[in-house]
Amino acid sequence: MAEAILPEVVITARENPFAPGRLRRVLGFDPGLVGSSWKELESRWRALGCRAAVTGHRGSGKSSLLEAWAARLDEAPMHLFFNDSRRRLDAGDRALLAACAGRVVFVDGEDHLPWWEIRELRRALDAASAVLVVRSRRGSWPELIRLHGDAALASVLISRAAPEWVGHFRPQVAARLRASGGNLRELLLGCYDELARGGDDGWSG
To answer: For residue range 28-74, what is the model confidence (pLDDT) as tens digits?
Structure first.
């Protein structure tokens, strides 16, 4: 089937259905899309002593899961965040860890830390009542679920984010996902960029 031609229109950042802020609102983590449910995930977390890790490659939905899980808790969790630009514990992190006794703590990007600080973090978290860690690879925490992006999931996300553009983006979704290295977040940002440029992104034909 021929790919739909993108109309020659100018789409502002506010109108762009793939704007990151809008995607956070309309594409909250849905465990049904990865063959699970909130009930199943929460039950498994409890079975693991409420100490587990969510693993998966970049852009597979790990941080989205953490954000959605936090919204389900009666009390907001303490939250530590690390990435390529933030690879060390600082004074604020250590102050938070010193006050984590009896609290739920979420750690996003734990494996960006050096091994000796991961060990320090793990010791400090012994006092927490529950821990959920996000990391790209398996580590010392038991694995709650491993996430990965595929073309079927990418198609569903595009359909939910911008049903009016499915005819344009879906035919090349597998190629787009490969080009983004399997990163669903980068794929959706690529859709944003393409609409912002008026659709000339080399995907037709």
So the answer is: 999 999 999 999 999 999 999 999 999 999 999 999 999 999 999 99
Residues 171 and 81 in one domain: no
User: For residue 122, which amino acid is it?
Assistant: R
Shared-domain flag, residues 73 and 137: yes
Domain that holds residue 192: 149-196
Give the span between the Cα atoms of 174 and 176, in whole angstroms. Answer: 5
Rg (CA), the chain: 19
The answer to whether residues 172 and 185 belong to one domain is yes
Number of domains in the chain: 2
Q: Please state the pTM of the whole predicted model.
A: 0.86
| Burial 55-91, CB ≥16 within 10 A → b, else e | bbbebbbbbbbbeebeeeeeeebbebebeeeeeebee
Evaluate whether residue 5 is within a structural domain. no
End-to-end C-alpha distance for the chain, whole angstroms: 10
Helical (H) or strand (E) element with 193: helix 184-196
